[in-house]
Amino acid sequence: MNDRFSEIAQVIQNRRTIKPAQMNGRQIPNEQVQQLLQLADWAPTHGHTEPWRFRVYAGEKVKDFCQAHADLYKANTPEESFMLFNYEKLLHMGDGASHLIVAYMQRGDLPKIPALEEIAATSCAIQNILLGATALGIGSYWGSGGMAYKPAMKEYLQLGEEDLVLGILYLGYSDKPVGNGKRTVPLAQKVQWM
Known about the structure:
The chain contains six helices and four strands; from the N terminus they run H-H-E-H-H-E-H-E-H-E. The protein is of the alpha+beta class. A four-stranded antiparallel sheet has the order 1-2-4-3. The longest helix is centred in the middle third of the chain and has 21 residues. The mean pLDDT is 95.
């Protein structure tokens, strides 16, 4: 194996989800977050539509977003379905995070390009952020819970009708050692050589 392949393979294989509750509150320099966003900008894109968009929250703005997220849950959940535990979880998700990024797909004006391809391109941009964070020793969590996929979140963010939130990324440092990864289905069962 050549060195470049080995380096990227190591980063990919060592990427792990670090839950926000495991983050210690130490701040990531904004310059490093900007570097991660620059990596995101190199995702593949059909027709050069570059559909990925990011809202970055840092410092106290992380708590502000979490408060708004929890309030959206409360305001848009029927009383019989509302769970205080879920509200509190959303409210405190970012307590140990340094930065929070809402990642969404902004639908372009090339209707010949299927929305699925725009979603895939944005997902690649998100993966670039996660891999870059791993290389920098930054923990990351790609969250899709709470109101992330709900119309109320799109409205809160003032997104277009065809735009889609693909997740809320929490970035931070953790004192907890990163565990070993696992795959439960052997690769041979996922691949057919023709």
